[in-house]
Amino acid sequence: MSDTTATSAAGRSGPGIDPVKLLLEGRAFFALIAIIVVFSLLSPVYFSVNNFLIMSSHVAIFGLLGLGMLIVILTGGIDLSVGSTLALAGVCAGFMMQGIELSWLGVTLYPPVWVVVILTACVGALVGVVNGVLVAYFKVPAFVATLGLLYVARGIALLLTNGLTINDLAGEEALGNQGFAWLGFNRLLGVPIGIIVLAVVALLCALMLNRSAPGRWIYSTGGNARAAELSGVPVRRVQVLVYVISGICSAIAGLVLSSQLTSAGPTAGQTYELTAIAAVVVGGASLMGGRGTVRGTLLGAFVIGFLSDGLVIIGVSSYWQTVFTGAVIILAVLMNSIEYKGGRKAPKPVPRKSAPA
Amino acid sequence: MTRHETIAAETGAQAVLSARNVAKSYGSVQALKGVNFDVRRGEVTTLFGENGAGKSTLMKILSGVIQPTSGEIVLDGAPVHFDSAAEARDMGISIIHQELSLAPNMNVRDNVFMGREIMGPTGVNYAEEGRQTRALMRELEEDIDPLTPVEELRLGQQQLVEIARALSVDARILIMDEPTSALSASEVEVLFKVIHDLKARGVSIVYISHHLEEALQITDHAVVLRDGTMTARAPRREIDLEWIVHNMVGDNFDLGSPPRGHEMGAPALSIRDLVLPDPNRPGRNVVDGVSLDIRAGEIVCIYGLMGAGRTEMLECAAGRVANSGGEIRLNGADVSGLSIAQRIEKGLVLVPEDRQRDGLVQTMSVGENLSLASIGAFTRGLFTSRRKEREIVDRSIREVTVKTDGGGAPIGSLSGGNQQKVVIGKMMATRPGVIMLDEPSRGIDIGAKAEVFRLLADAARERGLAVLFSTSEVNECLSIAHRVVVMRRGRISAEFGTGTSKEQIMAASGESAE
Predict the structure, then answer these.
(1) A29, A38, B472, B477: most buried, per Cβ within 10 A?
(2) pTM above 0.80, yes or no
(3) Does B307 reach chain A within 8 Å, measured CB to CB?
């Protein structure tokens, strides 16, 4: 039997470069380069450090949502509630900045900004817990469970503010709760804080996915949940975990966005869940689960962000922007299906138990 | 061989459908190696063979479900080519799969005409469909209202609906794959009567069954397959049970022998009065009071037919399903309430039967698959150690002799036998005390089989590993196992030492002599 001798290291082929493969694997990167080149030629203001930083601040929102979405999609799930969670988080933060009135004590608490940030993240995590428990333990399809939370979270955001936007997030010096605008406006070494937040979250996500046990659990759950479970992976806890991470990412995005806008509106982030999914897909992740990278999703977020901002800059009508964005997403999915058709070459199982030969 | 010549002469006149030198490969696994097979006009041709012999593959080729790698199919003397099951069906060839392919939520009429609805001027002509369905059911002497939802029918009746569907397209050749495996004795009688009637109408039937005696009652002509080749064929009057078993099983290929010369320890795994209800048939138990002890260093084989409860028992012991009665003890401690992960940690692991569905993560590499069950062993603090992981992966690749381009290779690049070794290696990497393997030899070639058994035997001898494996191939019972336990209908029907024979084992499983 030639196939039964151990040759573990032998026969490893050299790192040959196949141009087609390279183009396919780096497609999001090449798309980004192409977008930058084309828009730089079309508009004199596009290619400037300042414009890139402004566009990147927009990308930060989609990037944060996209990272959470990626982690959910890696397990084969989907999280449609991220846009609503973003709005809910923003509103909650704004609500806390206005002061929490404890009527039975007759006092109003003005928590400092760092407390607001942590509590807001907890709100996001809570939405994630509900999503995760519904999906993992009550076996509600992810699409339906998170669709429900999409409505519920949005509804709560509207209830909290009576449908109005909270405009005063600055805080007061006397109350010690200033500094909310820092997240959206300040720059560190010239880089907007939003982008730094995105970079930190991306780094944490990449570390978790590539270098920790939960990361391996996430990939295996998405690749084959049954096999993962039989290998001792706590599949259901993993499913809850990913929605919690997605919820926290949405809450952080909500904080950054409301800081950027200096207002927290209950209608913020509508359809952002779709943009986040688009970023993940453009980044080469498989919606079936098990395949996808942080790097790809970041590239995907930049592709979509730079494309739509570029279209605005050269003055294309917003109707056409929608058409272009849609076309990019379809193209990305087409290329994904080409890639995974070749890659997922599981040999057909020889007649199974159900049909003994 | 005079018989050979007579067959050659006979087939010209009598074969309605023939496979000529048909071969089929799945990757590196050859399921069929040049088989000649004739379906005889107006007769029942029974195909015998063990699991993995290629019976279902051959039937799928004849019915157009899959296409052969080489060889040709001859229908009424002319070579034909089927691109799909629908094409074969149009030529009058129908197959009834072992699992019925009915839509349980739809009624009998709609199932019979599914995909071939009779269209009238105002959409589907339900009246005509109903009339034809009623006529078909009357022919089968089973008075079922065409509007009855299929899920309300007994299994035997559902089978008749399948047959009605086959007849509704004027099937001249009807292939039945294990039609009786889910039927009661009286339902089997009805089915046999229907088969006789069909024969009388000139329908040619191909019949596959593991119940040898039952099949002998109905067959006119027997063909035996083994390891993808045809080993024998003969008319009914020339054969008996012994002839079939001999040709099915063949001479022993050496799959090893029970390891000797090591001390067996205390019982590592003790199963006591295990009961598991059947989720599909309320009130019945799929595992019905099984008690079993496996000592450290001992290798025990569970033999049984499909549906005997082997898989369910193993999955229950591994923690995938909870037992409703009895207890499972590992080294004396009750593990019944523990999760799969906790049982793995305590040293009780399962290598599942279907490696594609339950064993491998296709999106991950060979190395990631191998290390999946032992992530804890290479995690330091929050992070995994790449060096530690590579050590574990390399050691596993060596231990279970996986032939791969290294741990980074995609899992799909391996042959079936090597994929199976990865699944086994993954569980062995957790350093278990008890390893359970559900049909570890399924779909792998004989050389890989021998290697798998050898590495299990080595682990039992050297490390005192307790091994419990199930099989539906009687040859494998007589390989490395110290003890053979035969299961039948959820119970242990017999237990043998090493000195047993294939016939004894098969008899105890209910496969041959009742």
Answers:
(1) B477
(2) no
(3) no
